[in-house]
Amino acid sequence: MIQPIATAAAWRPAMLEASGAWLRRLTAEEVDDLRVAFRRLQATGKPMLGMTREDFPLGPFGAVLAEAAREMEAGIGFRTIRGIPVGDYTAEEAKLLFWAIGTHLGVARPQGKASQLISDVRDAGGTYRGTGGRGYNTNAELDFHTDGSDVVALLCLKTARSGGLSRLASSVAIHDALLAERPELVETLYGLFPHSRQKEEAADETPTYMAPVYSLKSGHFAARYIRNHIRSTQLIEGEPRLTERQHAALDAIQEMASSDAFCFSMWLEPGDLQLVNNHVLIHSRTHYEDFEEPERKRHLLRLWLAVPEGRPLCDAMREVYKNVAPGSVRGGFKGQNLPPGLAAWQARAAAALGMRDTPY
């Protein structure tokens, strides 16, 4: 029998608003620590795949990241760190700084057909709906969803003229509420659903695969809700058709996540670093209108991270993550253009964090 999960990640918005536990404002000492570490990294002249976390040694700011990592896995599932001095740096310098911060949290994973390790989240005229649609390169309102990694990290560089509100909901709270109200839908969500790789599969991957939305392994819950990828399979001839109950279950998640009872919203400011555990939270963003001037347009940077604190995943998630063992290097979209030097860098990064490497 399916049981409630009832962990600290099963929050409701009022709980976060009352506690303020989701936000951590940096002190002057912590910002100075970050600046000093970044100057040291810049002095080495090393590119992203040439550096290690030892080239970016952290003191007080490192403690902030460690606290955030604990909160993501054992607490409410996310943390927003406010006050990264992005205004002091060019866009390329900010990208290197973001990458360096990521090395203290986990191992970066490729994010698409181009095998990019950092994505520029901005409106590039992309199309959200469809068999090849991705949301990060559009200004569209996004369905609530998870990303393809243990953790998604966003660093805000510039905000839009209007809109672009960041929204989060607890998959754990939704699971438990839905279990009480519609247990048959929860049972359905533990079953397999067809998913599309959105035409970004690697040469050794199939265009589609089957995976559950909810899963449980050794007492650890994980949700993977990417409605757009499921919807895309229904446009592909020969793919399994969703049942009425599957449609109803997917609808229920979106409706509950969007409601005031479950949705927690925040405006990300330049210098905000948002860290989210994909296994326990789903996220979204409202439609936005941008500035006309290119230099003022909304711009965030995104990392997908495999983290040493990562939970065990069920075998049905192997098609997605490749490795389901806890603390393994896993997840992401391998794509078709893995950069030279990635395998060697990944092995070093995994060893530095005590993680199990998963070679390509």
From TrEMBL:
The organism's place on the tree of life at top rank? Bacteria
Annotated ranges, domain TauD/TfdA-like: 51-304
Keyword Iron included in the entry's annotation: no
The record's InterPro entries line, in alphabetical order, gives: AlphaKG_dependent_hydroxylases, TauD-like_sf, TauD/TfdA-like
Q: Tell me which Pfam families the record gives.
A: TauD (PF02668)
Kindly list the biological process annotations in GO that this record carries: antibiotic biosynthetic process
Q: Could you list this entry's UniProt keywords, alphabetically sorted.
A: Antibiotic biosynthesis, Dioxygenase, Oxidoreductase
Q: Ribosomal protein: is it a keyword of this entry? A: no
Q: State one molecular function term (GO).
A: 2-oxoglutarate-dependent dioxygenase activity
SUPFAM superfamilies membership: Clavaminate synthase-like
Cofactor(s) demanded: Fe(2+)
What protein name is recorded for this chain?
Answer: Taurine catabolism dioxygenase TauD, TfdA family
**Which organism is the protein's source?**
Belnapia rosea
